[in-house]
Amino acid sequence: MRLRAEAIALLALAFATPVWAAPSDDAPPVRYGKYDATGQASWYGHELAGRRTATGKRFDPDDVMIAHRTLPLESMVEVTDVDTGRTIIARVGDRGPGRPDRVADLSLGAAKLLGANRRSVAHIRLRALSPGSDRPGLILAGASAAPPVARPIALDPQGHYRVQIASFSSQARAHALARRFAARAIPAGRIWRVERAGLNADSAKALRDAAAEAGYDDARILHQD
């Protein structure tokens, strides 16, 4: 795994402090099930594996968890990548982050499910979940709430294809991403799909890979209608 420069700089401090810094004493209390906030989040991986968290457990980079200053430990949160619309369910497993410009820290496992592990910082929305709600099976699995990706299709060098890059409930975000990839934002019921059509096999693969590199791991190649 490639370590970010920021994580490397913090590594020396990790041996003298918990995985994430404790919250300030004057942090306002948060009522469970009512918290809803947006902000930036970083992620941490194997460089901190085995360190004790605020729960007393050792940090497992593959665990689907976040560090937060005030939400109850072991509670569940809905984490949404604001840029891509992907949502996961994660556990509050530690205190932090230490940086005041971060709303939370993600474990590597959470970042992977969210599709944010290829970026050093993600813009996220956090929503605390009430006990016994929001599909407990999904919470326990830590699975992505994004629709499953369709099985890859066999590409014909002579064929014509389209790439579905992402889907949004926000028209503005869909159009912004469409401009970025020279694509179109197409309405489909209550959502907007960002697609680019009229591609040969090589161009379709290149666009899909570029979208995945930008964090849109659900991008997929489809036959041209």
Automatic annotation (TrEMBL):
Question: Could you tell me the superkingdom of the organism this chain comes from?
Answer: Bacteria
Please list the residue ranges annotated as the SPOR domain.
Answer: 155-225
Its Enzyme Commission number(s) read: 4.2.2.-
InterPro entries documented for this protein = RlpA (IPR034718), RlpA-like_DPBB (IPR009009), RlpA-like_sf (IPR036908), RplA (IPR012997), SPOR-like_dom (IPR007730), SPOR-like_sf (IPR036680)
Biological process GO terms, please? cell wall organization; peptidoglycan metabolic process
GO MF entry, a single one: lytic endotransglycosylase activity
Enzyme class, top EC level, equals lyase
Known function: Lytic transglycosylase with a strong preference for naked glycan strands that lack stem peptides.
Record's HAMAP family?
RlpA (MF_02071)
- Cross-referenced NCBIfam families, in alphabetical order? rlpA
**Which family is it part of?**
Belongs to the RlpA family.
Q: What is the protein name for this chain?
A: Endolytic peptidoglycan transglycosylase RlpA
Q: Which organism is it from?
A: Sphingomonas zeae
As recorded in Swiss-Prot or TrEMBL, the protein's gene is named rlpA
